[in-house]
Each structure stands twice: as C-alpha cells, then as structure tokens.
Amino acid sequence: MLDMLLQGFAAVLSPQIFILITIGVAVGIVFGAVPGLTAVMAIALTLPMTYSLGASAGISLLIALFVGATSGALISAILLKIPGTPSSIATTFDGAPMMEKGEGAKALGVGIVFSFLGTIMSIAALMFIAPSLARVALSFGPHEYFAIAVFSLTLIATLSSGSMIKGIFAGVAGFAVSTVGIAPVDAITRYTFGRVEINAGFSILTVLVGMFAIAEVIRVAEQARKRGDMPTVAPLMVKIKGFGFSMAEFLGQIPNAIRSGLIGISIGILPGIGAGTSNIISYIAAKKRSKTPEKFGKGTIEGVVASETANNAGIGGAMIPLLTLGIPGDAVTAILLGGLMIHGIQPGPMLFITQGALVYTIFAALIVSAFMMLVLEFLGLRVFIRLLAIPKHILLPVILVLCAVGAFGLSSRVFDVWTILAFGVLGYAFVKAGIPAAPFIIGFILGPMAETNFRRGLQLSAGDFTGFITNPIAGTFLGLAALSILWQIYSALRPKPVKTLSDIVD
To answer: Quick one: which of 61, 340, 409, 481 is 20 to 30 A from 67 by CA?
Structure first.
C-alpha cells in the first residue's frame, strides 16, 4: 500500500499535475466563495478541458476543484453572512457574528485550519476503511433512508432557538415547497400551475441563494438606507498572528473536530445527503455537547469548527461509495463519476484491482489538494479581509449581479433569476417575522428524500406501514426520532429554575 501511495505522489508531484492542482484549488476557492457559484458548476465547466489531458492529470484537476470549492464557501459565509454553497450554511451562524465583533480574521483562520483537518480525516477514512463502510451504506434501502430523513427532520426543533413554533412552521414550509413539480414514483405534476419551468421543482441553488443571499442584500440595504452608508473598516491584520487563534484554543477544539469529522464522513458516505446536511447536524451536535451552548449563534469558534470540519470531511466520505461501488453520493461526485468514465475508468470494486495505481494517484491528489488549499487560503487571508473595506453600495450590487449570473447559469433561464428574487423576498419576510431560515432549508432538502423513500418503502411492503418499524435499522432511527420529539417537548414544558437574588448578583 505504501509503495502504491508513493507512486501516486510521484505522479501528482510532476510539474504538469502539480500546476493543475494549484490552479484547480485556486479556481475552486473562488467558485466556492462567490454566492451562486458552486463546486458542481466549477467541475462541470472544467470537465471539457480535461478531455485532452491524461487520466491522472484530468482527475487530479477535478479533485482539486472539489476540495477548493468545498472549503472556499467559508469565506463568503463569514465575511458576507452568505453561504457560498449549502455546505457552509451552519458556518454563517457563528462566523458572521464573529466578523461583526471584529473577529473576522480569527473566524477565517479557524475555518481554514479545521477545513484542512476535516479533509485529511476523510482521506484517511477513504484509504483505510472505505470497503467495509461502503458495504454498510449499500445495505440501506427505502425504509432506512425514510427513517434517517424523519430523524433528521426532528432536529429542526433544536435549530429553532427562540420559538419552536416558528422553527416547525419554517420546516413545514420548506417541506411544502419541496413538493412542487413532478412527484416521485407516479410522476404527477403538483402545484406547477401549468408552468413547465417548475416541472422539475425548485433548484436547491436558487432557493439557497434567494433565502440567504438576496434576503441578506435586502436587509443590509434597508439598514444602510436608515443610517446612511457608513464606511466599513476591515479588522486590523497587524494584530493577527498565524491563523489568528491560540494553541490552547486549537487543542480545546480537538474533541469537537473529531466528532464533527466523524459525522461528516458518515453522512458523506450516504448517497443523496451530502455536506449540506452534515454541517448542520454537526453544528447541532456541537451545541448539545458544549459547556457554553448559550454562546452558539452569537459568535463562538465551536460553531465554525463543527461546520467546517464536517463539510470538508464529506469530501472523502462521498468518494468512498464512488470509488468502491460506483455510486455518486451527491451532485459533485456524480460529475466526477462522469469524468472518470470519460477517461475510460469504471469505478467499482474491480477498480482497486485493475487500476490500483490510478486509485492511489487519486488519494495522493486529494492529500496534495488539501495542503494547497491550506497554503492558498492562508496566503489569501489578508486579501479576503480587504473585502470588508469595500463600501456596501458597491459590494451589494456586485453580489446581486453575481447571484443572478449564477442562477442564470444553472439552466440558461431567466426564470431562475426571478426565482431567486422571489425566495429573496420570502427570506426577507422570514427575517422581519423572526422566523429562522435554517429549518426551511432542512425541510426543503430532506422533504424529497423522506417522500420518495416512504413511497418506495410502501411499494416494497405492499402498502404495509409496519415495514418501517419491523426493519431493525429503520425502527431504531424512528425510535430515536420519537425520543427526540419527546425530549424537545419535555424541555419546553418543564418548569424553569427560578433565579434567586444571590444568583443574579453572582
């Protein structure tokens, strides 16, 4: 194994592939950082350029784009409070408040380092435990996936800080919006009102950009109108040493990083879920395990560590079923699968036997891309901070145009531009009503997964609902979901301890 890995490093450290990896990571960071541009778009646009390259060079370039774009999303999530991709939604929860407190550079440094560690953890998992984990994931059927979706939906209550009712309303609204379009299984059109543009439903990218980016642009523009366009001052970089945080803070976050990395790897392996969900679940887990959960949402590095470790850990996790079984875990790995097949490579169990050298070249490309991501983002830290000095009246129109270009680039339709504007207005209404947007996104992402697998499960069991309970894995997850709901109800109804005068003084 070591000999094969050394051969892989020898291949990717050749001048041609190393330059391609450097360019790929840099371009990927830009695509991840700009709202509306995603890793999917970066790889899709670059794929034709790999035709003339060899298999090792072409696949290494695509992997570098994947790693760069996944990590680059943290930049806009922290600096602009806009997640560049779904994988950095939870990064905005604490990264943006840290930026508002003048700790933007520290938040970026934490995000960069733990993105790197999450990537390395997932590569280790990919190399050492890929076959056995992939077999477990492959054994899951509709009953198990439905139960996992239901369990994940119960976590909405945890994200509904302030009002559980508003959180549940947002989650149900997201679920309802996800039903627009052609229904799974029986292909009946729902809520399309004769518009062929929404037969396939709303794209996650348009919903995400609208609810977060456009809504944020409207909110900031409203505030700027009220108080005038105050000059924005970037944090002073002269006070920042290294990545902006101490060794004690780094060591204190190791358990959080390990837990979040394991969550990211586990969810990354499961097809169809991806980093868009893992970063939120790891954030919830970190908040539950934290000694200071009240600091979450107000600017704590624990939240940034959880989100960024988990979403980058999904890189190696998503590659496990792709390489060992030929099953893409998300849209990015689906395009990577196409890239492999274009170069005459058929992923699957036989890939490790017939093209072992190429497999270890892919492993080496992942490791080199992770290190290049760390170096390029560290060198670019001061450049990213300078974005804060750009006046809002210049920055906001640029963001709006980039969002519109990203939406139009999805399918070359003006309809998608109107869609992000519509969801932007909805997101702004959520802000004014004090309704959290994260449960809406969770409902929208998990809704189709729950519905599709519920209907498939009923087909397999001939309409018998008990199949979801008698299945051991599905029954376990549904039991955990019931316990989660009961615990949330108990937490909401139990009497709060009354503070005495001495407690208040303390």
So the answer is: 409
Average pLDDT over residues 442-451: 81
Q: Each residue of 317-349: b (16+ CB within 10 Å) or e?
A: bbbbbbbbbbbbbbbbbbbbbebbeebebebee
pTM of the model: 0.66
CA distance 94 to 300: 6
Structure tokens belonging to residue 377: 């983002």
Please tell me the distance from the alpha carbon of residue 81 to that of residue 446, in angstroms, as a whole number: 23
CB neighbour list of residue 428: distance below 8 Å, 6 or more residues apart = 214, 215, 218, 219
- The reported pLDDT for the residue numbered 429 is 92
Q: Which of 158, 238, 222, 151 is nearest to 481 (CA)?
A: 151
- For residue 180, which of 400, 434, 451, 418 has the smallest C-alpha distance? 451
CA nearest 211: which of 435, 447, 398?
435
In sequence order, which ranges of 185-330 are alpha helices (DSSP H)? 204-208, 215-227, 247-252, 254-269, 275-289, 301-325
CA distance 104 to 115: 16
CB 205 within 8 A of CB 410: yes
SS3 label, residue 471: coil
Query: In this structure, are residues 72 and 364 in contact, taking their beta carbons and an 8 Å threshold?
Result: no
Mean pLDDT of all residues in the chain?
78
Identify the CA nearest to 278 among candidates 52, 118, 387, 451.
118
Q: In the structure encoding, which two tokens stand for residue 302, read together?
A: 């624990």
For position 504, what pLDDT does the model report? 39
CB atoms within 10 A of CB 126: 26
User: Which strand (E) or helix (H) includes residue 131?
Assistant: helix 130-138
Rounded distance, CA 142 to CA 129, Å? Answer: 24
Query: Which residue type occupies 331?
Result: A
Q: Tell me if residue 235 falls in helix, strand or coil.
A: coil
Q: Name the burial class of residue 415, with classes exposed (0-12), middle (13-18) and buried (19+) by CB atoms within 10 angstroms of its CB.
A: middle
Asked if residue 92 lies in contact with residue 82, where contact means CB atoms within 8 angstroms, the answer is yes
Two tokens at 74? 């943290």
Whether the per-residue pLDDT at 435 is higher than 90: the answer is no
Instruction: Give the number of other Cβ atoms within 10 Å of residue 417's Cβ.
Output: 17
411 residue type, one letter: S
Residue from 185, 133, 134, 149 nearest 468 by CA: 149
**DSSP per-residue string spanning 183-216:** PTTT--EES-TT-GGGTT---HHHHHIIIIIIHH
Share of the chain above pLDDT 90, in %: 3
24 touches 68 (CB < 8 A): yes
**Does residue 220 contact residue 392 with C-beta atoms inside 8 Å?**
yes
- Strand positions, DSSP E, 396-501: none
pLDDT digits (tens, 9 = 90+) for 84-110: 666 777 888 888 888 878 787 788 888
CA-closest candidate to residue 151, choices 489, 479, 403: 479
H helix or E strand, kind and range, residue 181: strand 181-182
